[in-house]
Amino acid sequence: MWIGVVENFHISNNKLIELERLESLIMGESGVNSYTLQPLAHYAKLFTLEIAPARPDSAVIYDAPPASIAAPFFLTPSRTVYGAAEFIRPFEDGAHAHLFGFYIDESLRGRGAASMFLAACETRLLEGYSIGTIDLSVSEQNARALAFYIKNGYGAAEKVEDYYGAGRGRIIMRKTIRDVINA
Ligand SMILES: CC(C)(COP(=O)(O)OP(=O)(O)OC[C@H]1O[C@@H](n2cnc3c(N)ncnc32)[C@H](O)[C@@H]1OP(=O)(O)O)[C@@H](O)C(=O)NCCC(=O)NCCS
Q: Is 6 exposed, middle or buried (0-12, 13-18, 19+ CB in 10 A)?
């Protein structure tokens, strides 16, 4: 069994179907579809957490030992994508990235897989694209995600009311990866 993180430059038809299913299932109304996923792969950064019987040919950026997923895990035939991380970059600051979407499949939660996935993305963004800082927004109600980001070195910077429209406030969190990874 192979576990790792893939940096996507063009998403195949099968992978688009898998990603659209996960986006809708996990992210609900904030999920995106193929019309956003493909531009993210082409013009932003889309990483996927993948599990497969063997190492894929694509530009794999990080091979994780299967042991990094703490409990037994059973492969689902015809399925490889178990998580996605979507980053965009502002025009005015090429050393900064915004984590626009991040999730892993429910079957992998609480096993350290999400932390491994995020750390691999951060390392690649720093080493490959000179990204030094990352920010993201998270709902105050999403206690699990808040705890996860704090555990992974993100600090709450500000609270913005109505960030995504009336009643959809967000906590903005930031991390300086330049110092952490080079330390
Ligand atoms: C956010 C996400 C990627 C984190 O991955 P994960 O495997 O669940 O994360 P972990 O289990 O490593 O860490 C979550 C932490 O929250 C804690 N936690 C779990 N449920 C919690 C709850 N209801 N309230 C508060 N903390 C909670 C866990 O105990 C854990 O902390 P610990 O490791 O110190 O014990 C994953 O849960 C996910 O994909 N969620 C759905 C999508 C989502 O919300 N994405 C973020 C949008 S901004």
A: buried
Domain span holding position 111: 2-182
pLDDT of residue 79: 82
Distance CA 103, CA 89 (A): 19
Per residue in 26-51, pLDDT (tens digit) is 999 999 999 999 999 999 999 999 98
Whole-number Å distance, alpha carbon 91 to ligand 1 midpoint, is 31
Number of domains in the chain: 1
- CATH value at residue 59: 3.40.630.30
Prediction pTM value = 0.94
- Which one of 49, 140, 148, 151 would you pick to mutate in the ligand 1 pocket, going by the greatest count of ligand atoms within 8 A of its CB? 148
